[in-house]
Amino acid sequence: MISRSASDGARCIGTMSIARDGETLMTGLYRVLSHVLLATATIPAASAPLSAQQYPTKPVKIIVAFAPGGGNDLIARVMAQRLTTALGQQFIVENKPGAGGSIGFRSGIKSLPDGYTLTVITSSYAVNPSLYKLDYDPVADITPVVEISRGPFLVVVNPSLSVRNLYELIALAKSKPGQINFATGGQGTNTHLAAELFANIAGIKIAVVHYRGVGPALTDTIGEQTNAMITTSAPALPYVKAGRLRALAVTTSTRVPAVPDIPTVAESGVPDYEVVSWYGLVGPKGLPRTIVDRLNAELTKALKLKKTAEQLQSDGQSPVGGSPEQLLATIKKEIVLWRKVVSDAGVKAE
C-alpha cells in the first residue's frame, strides 16, 4: 500500500513537473515569437527607400565636366538655381574638367545612386566612347533624368580677322592653308569635332588649338591669340552682342530666334553641315525611379517657365524637357553619329 502510494505520488509529481516544463516552454516560444513578429514589423520602416516627398534632405551636387564659363556650366547653374528654389535644398555646381569631359563624367557615373550627385552631359558625352577607353558603359551605367535644352553652335571669329561672312572665312582659309587657328574646348570635345567636320566638308585645312574648356578658348579668341572658334552658343552670344566676337553662322539647319540675322552654315555655302548642341541631366545607374520622377517633374516645370525659356533663348538654346526615355534615345543616337565623325576625321584622343 505504502509502495503503491509512493509510486502514484512520484508519477503525480512527474506529471506536474512535465506540465510545468511544458508551460514554461510554451511561454518561452510565445515570447520569442512575439519578438520576431515585432522585429519583422519594423523592417519595412527601417529599410524603406527615401520617398519622392522626402528627397532631398541635404545639398545635391551637380557635376559639370568642363571649366567654368562654358555652355555646360551656364546651363547647370540655371538648372541648379531652379531646383534649389523648387526643392528647398542647395543644388551646387562642381566643375571637373579634363580629358574631353571624361574625368567629370566618370566621377558622376561612379558616385552613389542616392540622388545627391547628378551630372550634366552634352554631345561630348556621346563622343567619348569613340575616343577613350572608358571603364563604364555610357548607356547602361547611367540613369537618364531629362533633356534640358537644344541649340546651335556658332562659328565666331575675332573682329580683327578680315572676314565678314562664312564665304570669306573659307576663301581666306583656302588661301592660307593651315594658318587660320581654330580654338577648341579640348581634344576630342564637341567644339573640336565641330571644327574638324567643318574643315572636312568645306575643303579647308585649319590649325586647331586646344584649351581646357570653352571659357579659356573663348578668352584667347577674344584676345586675338586664336582667329576663330565653333562654340556652343550660350557662352559666346554675350560677346557677340557686345561686339567682341563676330558670329558668321549658326550650325543648325534653321536660324535661331535669339539671333535671327545670323545665317546657317548651310545657307553660307556648306549645305551638308549641321551640328546640334544639347544638354541633359543624368544620375548613376540604380538611381531610384521615385527620385528620377521628382527631378524630371520639377525640371520639366522649370523649363516651361517663361523666365527659364527666355534665359535659355537669350543664350541660343531652346528648352526641351520630356521623359527620361527620350533623353536615353538622344544619347544612343548621338553616340552613333559622333562615332562616324571621329572615324571620318581621323581624330585621336591625347
Outline:
The protein has 350 residues and is an alpha/beta fold.
Q: What would you say this structure looks like, in words?
A:
- It is built from 11 helices and 10 strands.
- The chain is an alpha/beta fold and 350 residues long.
- It has 2 domains: 161 residues, D-Maltodextrin-Binding Protein, domain 2, CATH 3.40.190; 99 residues, D-Maltodextrin-Binding Protein, domain 2 (3-Layer(aba) Sandwich), CATH 3.40.190.
- Strands 1, 2, 3, 4, 5, 6, 7, 8, 9 and 10 form a 10-stranded mixed β-sheet that branches.
- Helix 2 crosses helix 9 and helix 6 packs across helix 11.
- It is globular and about 65 Å long.
- The N terminus is likely disordered.
Oligomer: single chain
Main beta sheet: strand number and arrangement? 10 strands, mixed
Number of helices: 11
Architecture per CATH nomenclature, i.e. the level-2 architecture of the largest domain: 3-Layer(aba) Sandwich
SS content category: alpha/beta
CATH hierarchy, class of the largest domain: Alpha Beta
Segments where pLDDT lies below 50 for 5+ residues? Answer: 1-7, 9-30, 32-48
Write the layout of secondary structure elements.
Layout: H1 2-47, E1 60-64, H2 71-87, E2 91-95, H3 102-109, E3 117-122, H4 123-127, E4 142-157, H5 166-175, E5 181-184, H6 190-202, E6 207-210, H7 214-222, E7 228-232, H8 233-241, E8 246-250, E9 276-284, H9 289-304, H10 306-314, E10 318-321, H11 324-345
Parallel strand pairs: 1-2, 1-3, 5-6, 5-7
Antiparallel strand pairs: 3-9, 4-7, 4-8, 4-9, 4-10
Helix pairs in contact: 2-9, 6-11
